Amino acid sequence: MTNLNETQKDIVEEFSIFEDWLDRYNYLIELGNDLPAIDPQYRTNEYLINGCQSKVWLHADLVNEKIEFKADSDAIIVKGIVALLVKVLSGRTPAEILENELYFIEEIGLKQNLSPTRSNGLLAMVKKMKLYALAYQAKASQKS
To answer: Of 6, 11, 27, nearest to 85 (Cα)?
Structure first.
């Protein structure tokens, strides 16, 4: 598996193919459509991310010391955004998630091309994923 920064670099390259933001939005929608369905038991208020205008559900499991994220949204663009985050952060150790900056968001122009409410939602998603990483890291350090 490629490391977190290589995955971010790949995403930046994928997005550089598209000339304008309409094409990038269409690509985001495709990514969202390819996101595996989340188990219905995680489509509850307990897994909703606060701070998102749309509904975004996020669940994380620790499998072989790596975090596996599952997510879904009721909005097609937002589902694409969360699919990107899952692509970058899923299958990583808590330390990898906490120690790396998510620079691809800035480099593909995502932050600049989102409405303020979507931008806040994006930050809320990243924050929640980092909180999961922090919680799993703390749990692991208690064991050792």
So the answer is: 11
Report whether CATH 3.90.1010.10 matches the domain 4-138.
yes
Alpha-carbon gap, residue 61 to 69, rounded angstroms: 7
For residue 124, give both structure tokens. Answer: 């809320």
Residues near 45 by Cβ (< 8 Å), separated by ≥ 6? Answer: none
Give percent of the chain with pLDDT exceeding 90.
81
Q: Please measure the distance between the N-terminal and C-terminal CA atoms of the chain and give it in whole angstroms.
A: 26
Tell me if residue 52 is catalytic.
yes
State the DSSP string of 26-81: HHHHHHHHHSPPPPGGGSSGGGBPTT-SS-EEEEEEEETTEEEEEEEESSHHHHHH
Contact 125, 82 (CB under 8 A): yes
Active-site residue (options: 4, 35, 52, 84): 52
CA distance 116 to 88: 23
Tens of pLDDT, residues 92-123: 999 999 999 999 999 999 888 888 888 889 99
Q: CB-hemisphere CA count at 13 Å for 39?
A: 8
